[in-house]
Amino acid sequence: MKRYTVLLVAAFFFSVFSNAQEKVAKWDVFELTLKGNEQGNPFINTAFSAVFRHGNKEFQPEGFYDGNGLYKIRFMPNEEGEWKYLTKSNKAELNNKSGSFYCTPAERENHGPVSVQNKYYFAFADSTNYIPFGTTLYEWAFQSAEKKAQTLATLQQAPFNKVRMLAVPPYHKRYVEGPGKLTVFPFVGTEKENFDFSRFNPLFFQQLEKDVLALQKLNIEVDLILFRPYDGGKWGFDQMDRETNDRFLRYVIARFGAYHNIWWSLSNENSFIKHLTDEDWDHYFQVVQQYDPYQHLRSIHNADRIYDYKKPWVTHVSLQYYNAVRVFGVSPLLRDIYQKPIVHDEINYEGNIEKRWGQLTGEELTYRFWTAYIGGAYATHGEALEEGWISLGGKLNGTSPQRISFLRKIVESAPKDWLPLDQYYLLNAVGKYGAYYLYYFGKETPSEWAFSLPDEGLKDGMKFKVELIDTWNMTIKPVDKVYEVQKLNNYAFIDKQKSKVKLPGKPYMAIRITRLDIPTMASRTEGEKKN
Amino acid sequence: MKRYTVLLVAAFFFSVFSNAQEKVAKWDVFELTLKGNEQGNPFINTAFSAVFRHGNKEFQPEGFYDGNGLYKIRFMPNEEGEWKYLTKSNKAELNNKSGSFYCTPAERENHGPVSVQNKYYFAFADSTNYIPFGTTLYEWAFQSAEKKAQTLATLQQAPFNKVRMLAVPPYHKRYVEGPGKLTVFPFVGTEKENFDFSRFNPLFFQQLEKDVLALQKLNIEVDLILFRPYDGGKWGFDQMDRETNDRFLRYVIARFGAYHNIWWSLSNENSFIKHLTDEDWDHYFQVVQQYDPYQHLRSIHNADRIYDYKKPWVTHVSLQYYNAVRVFGVSPLLRDIYQKPIVHDEINYEGNIEKRWGQLTGEELTYRFWTAYIGGAYATHGEALEEGWISLGGKLNGTSPQRISFLRKIVESAPKDWLPLDQYYLLNAVGKYGAYYLYYFGKETPSEWAFSLPDEGLKDGMKFKVELIDTWNMTIKPVDKVYEVQKLNNYAFIDKQKSKVKLPGKPYMAIRITRLDIPTMASRTEGEKKN
């Protein structure tokens, strides 16, 4: 994306610029910059926002102080045509500034922000389907330029379209000493425990913005983690008072809210910030809800106390519960409990570290991914091999990413409204009744599968093709037979000839069954089969 | 229990009775009967309640019209000593009547009402542990006297201490025609669709009370199901308006609330009553919460829409989700989500009927029970063999009840605050760290188990005994070895000699591990081992 900046240093310039109307693509960022007063504490004493209007649409993003006497307001237009704005401030030089810009059609790869669609699913604002395949890169933004470039290059080849990352670095030895030493923090001050929580450090956020925009360029959503418990009593970023936290949230929203690829993750492992109760989190959710004009996705990632994802300001579930993807059937239950999209945002990592959360084999992590998606949910990857991907980024060395890529192609070629099938009785099937069925056998090693489908949507005589999927070796082999279904009883249809599908007796196999007499369904899976 | 009745036909008698003070045992029922006016509709136009006082304690149960001009108020005292009462009514003959009774110590088997204790557990009011092992007897109360006597005789021998039963019969052919024909309904009228919903039929409730009290005599809790969707457009009991439903709830509470063994199940399969929204159920929960002076347990049993059990008026989860007990690990997650006791109140039934919810083998139902309890949850039995136990009662013919009895003895001999162990990583263990461990292998058929316990609560040198439990054949065999633990890593302790426990390579096995150097733990399991 390009950033459009209007710098207004005086009313005179303003009128000039106003005549040569700026153009901003839909879901891109219009940025207004005003020269203001640097006196006092501009982070504390400045009320600054603007109303943007187009037809009946009205948005009121807050502005922010960006240092050097510059005040900015960012805005993401969501309709083509002329938008007019008028600033409001308690400071004369920032108040009552008006102007307009013209919103042009969205650029090719910008589908707008992601939101929840059809209760359990996600979609971009232009209705393009979005199916999250996340990865974890908590601290990648706080590494060297070289390392970050390497991370971005890796991501360009990886199957991931969402990154979970911290907005604020965790306390770590390497950030205080050694080559990875941090010099810029979100607040004015140094690591020597003398941060001035009343003053943000614009440079920190400017750098972070570049990283968020670099991911945006790769069409990767950013699940930006606002709070985290990882200070160990050192920097105090997890011990700030409510006033500071509120100000921090509004500042981050003012800076990042206009980026279409932003999601808000209120916290990582929130309950490890021990002094904050669920009622505190209710409050912070509501602050985000109130100040984000675009209502980006909002969730929170749990530690040992699961926040109530039913609460109205939570858009989707962002769960850390490893066992929920180790057995079948949990994700359908979670869908039914929460009636929201279920994202398993931490399911242990492929790795070989001493900590047991980073000891999965590639097979196991791939298995957990399949278990999530077969249950109508989503999962997030992580790697804790030598390079420490989840913390630092860099290169991926695991064996799961290519299998996740294989899974992603299968999922993206499936009907977008797939769901767990017959979910009170079946454990391992997802699909669309009468059209598409994906059965996954996980660690079971069946040598055959008696062709049988839940009755919903079926009629005698419907024809299906079957493909054997080896989820680990990444092969899809068609079975050379057309299956014609026949009602068995009130619950199931079987193959007319009572055929069984032969399976190789090894783990990690799946079966894909596609209706043959729906042209769109039969051809839908052709593309990725050839990969 | 005995029922104590004070019949006040005139103020004169009242003062006489008042001098010869009645005695009522703690958690038993004091019943005040007043002769009133029969004119008009006493169910609609009579406000009638009483305040009962003892020290600082005050309760205000509503009264009810019991037919024949008699108005009653029932009260369950929860403290010994003198209780005074004063009636309130909009009818002079029921208003301002005062009196007192003396509350004596509880009778031996009356431990008071059950409530939630320690977040995930239940206990009687006298702190006696209560671990639900329920069964389902939806319509037993609407059968012949002979059948009911048979059901009670069966229950006397059965392992069940909770019965789920309907307060109102479902529409069924047998209740309209044939020998099972019902003649008494909750409302005045007959099955010919002319019920007067403004008038209760006291006889119906008097009969139901006898059944509830018969179960009380067997120390069985009654999970009384207030609404149900099973009318198929016939009687209309599931289509009553809010005013009628509210009146019905208050009438049932007035009649049954003073019985210590009552639980309120707002509905069975609530979402099948299609016109009632979750907001409607919120309302009905709040009516029960408002009018029940004793705050008996409250939950609701779902169909295809799971009510939000996090809501504050829900005391425990009463779930129908079969797959949640088919795999390990779900109950611990449900505990963490809801932070309330988890009762799997419908997990399919042992049976051989055409409906697939009644087709479980005894092995499968036993397995599901174990899966529930190993996850720190509770389960409810049902049988759909020839006799139709879940509907009609009678005899039990299944193979699961005696296994459930075996399980119950094991559970009751375990530490009462057991919990799922290491629940983010382990799937199949419940117990108390450092003291007691129960591992269940379900359908897995291991031939050995490498002795390994989660590290919490352990120190090098602690000694344990191991018993092999065959959950199907109901045997408990001690392993002739003392296991001494030694730290393996940050997560586990293993046997010093790296011993493995030999298993018979068949399904449904469990291992019980008990600390030897805690005298109370070592002896705790002796009793039931000999059974």
Automatic annotation (TrEMBL), chains A, B:
Residues 430-514 form the DUF5605 domain. Residues 1-20 form the signal peptide. Keywords: Signal. Transmembrane segments: none annotated. The keyword Transferase does not apply. Residues 117-377 form the Apiosidase-like catalytic domain. Residues 23-90 form the DUF5060 domain. InterPro entries: Apiosidase-like_cat_dom (IPR025277), DUF5060 (IPR032260), DUF5605 (IPR041239), GH (IPR017853), Ig-like_fold (IPR013783). This is DUF5605 domain-containing protein.
